[in-house]
Design brief:
- By secondary structure, this protein is mostly helical.
- It has one domain.
- It has three helices and no strands.
- The mean pLDDT is 87.
Length: 91
């Protein structure tokens, strides 16, 4: 009977050692899971930023299609002149 307890005890110790190895040491263990969670969270943040940027670009497109004052402002920001403007060149 004592031999069976010894065999079961050794088997449990080996089983626990294998479980710990697979959870912590192996490449697909908890460390990898933590890395994947961090990567997932950073991708969520980047995705949110890109969605916000996309909304801003949609707004700019709509303004460029409909708002004459906005079109003129963008053109002036890019050093464009309109007919009738007087240009001074300074050396």
């Amino acid at each position: 009977m004592k031999a069976w307890y010894f065999v079961i005890g050794i088997s449990l110790i080996i089983g626990i050692a294998l479980l710990v190895n697979s959870l912590y040491i192996s490449p697909n263990g908890l460390k990898r899971l933590d890395e994947l969670k961090k990567e997932y969270n950073s991708l969520l943040i980047e995705n949110k930023k890109l969605k916000e940027e996309n909304e801003q670009l949609k707004l700019q497109i709509e303004l460029l299609k409909t708002d004459e004052r906005y079109i003129e402002k963008v053109a002036r920001d890019r050093n464009m002149i309109k007919e009738g403007d007087i240009v001074f060149k300074i050396k």
